[in-house]
Amino acid sequence: MIDPRPPGFRELFQRDPDIAACAPGRVNLIGEHTDYNEGFVLPTVIPRETRVELAGRANELVRAWSRARCGEGALEYELGSEQRGRGWLDYVQGVTFAARRAGCPVEGFDVRIESDVPVGAGLGSSAALCVSLLRGLRQMLHLALDDVALARVARAAETDFVGAPVGLMDQMASSLCRPGEALMIDMRTTAFERVRLPSAADIVVIDSAVPHANAANAYRHRREECERAAAGLGVEALRDVDETRLSELALLPDREARRARHVITENARVQRASAALRAGDLAALGTLLDASHQSLRDDFEASCPELDLLVDLARSQPQTYGARMTGGGFGGSMLALVKAGSGADIAGAVSAEYGRRSGRRPSWLVIPGARR
């Protein structure tokens, strides 16, 4: 009989690990596609994480094993000889590539990786992997990286090695955010403020089972369109345009104008949402979530029929304050703000009806209201 248990670190590498570290996935309450436009975001962490175990080596060899590829043995590469195109290993290679380039004295190591952050759901699985690995390396090698610097190296692993044109939000959320709070982040300065989540609401996150990929062409094209819109408006980034200048969008081609309108109004929504959280105004926060989804669907065209269906089903529940797609879009997940204590029931009901209508098998999680 085959043993279904995955191998432990000792079984894989014939020794015990020196260090264990972890990092959570994240969900963005509001502020989509604003991060790479140097705007504002409001993410929180989810109760799912990536865990790593590491042991140092006396050479330049890296050996990595992932439970997600349990049928494979450990994969290997030499530091300084990282080559993209090796699937999940690219994120490990990206971390060592970016860390060394940032001046960190990274040495060879063995690493065992496991995670319950859903891949392809727009919940920051790649950021959780990069941040958890960097946390482990920081602890093992005594690297001089604070939490923001660590997030920057994690982002560079994705953008400069893997080739995904992501902003810094995912990595900052995974590196800095704590359960029971959201981070209001200014993505231009990386200044952040911790905002307590309301005790009177649950957050429901449902994965549409339509995979989302940051490196896909649609995401890249949206970023390019935003850059062209900023150039057309004569600003460094769309962050520099507020709602008083919306009439100037008539000067842009229609597509760039709609992309810019989403970013400009979304930045304003993030700031209003942060204020609503502090005031405990769940009705106002729900209205902002609804408006965010409409903008993402119509102006930014980042939604898809499955996400729209999930949002509509969630909104039909009487205990829902508001709902929106979350993450980069083109698949991924839906987020709903619901009355505290109703999250599991709403998630189950919406998921069942969505599965019946779409033929897909969604998964869900609930972030309960913060305890006082």
Question: What would you say this structure looks like, in words?
Answer:
The structure is a single chain. With 372 residues, the chain is of the alpha+beta class. The protein folds into two domains: 9-193, Ribosomal Protein S5, domain 2, CATH 3.30.230; 197-367, Alpha-Beta Plaits. The protein is 39% helix and 22% strand. It has helices spanning 9-13, 89-101, 125-141, 147-162, 169-176, 217-233, 254-279, 282-298, 305-315, 343-358; strands spanning 19-30, 40-56, 61-66, 75-78, 109-115, 181-186, 192-196, 201-207, 320-326, 333-339, 363-367. The mean pLDDT is 94.
Note the topology:
Layout: H1 9-13, E1 19-30, E2 40-56, E3 61-66, E4 75-78, H2 89-101, E5 109-115, H3 125-141, H4 147-162, H5 169-176, E6 181-186, E7 192-196, E8 201-207, H6 217-233, H7 254-279, H8 282-298, H9 305-315, E9 320-326, E10 333-339, H10 343-358, E11 363-367
Parallel strand pairs: 3-5
Antiparallel strand pairs: 1-2, 2-5, 2-6, 3-4, 6-7, 8-10, 8-11, 9-10
Helix pairs in contact: 2-3, 2-4, 3-4, 3-5, 4-5, 6-7, 7-8, 9-10
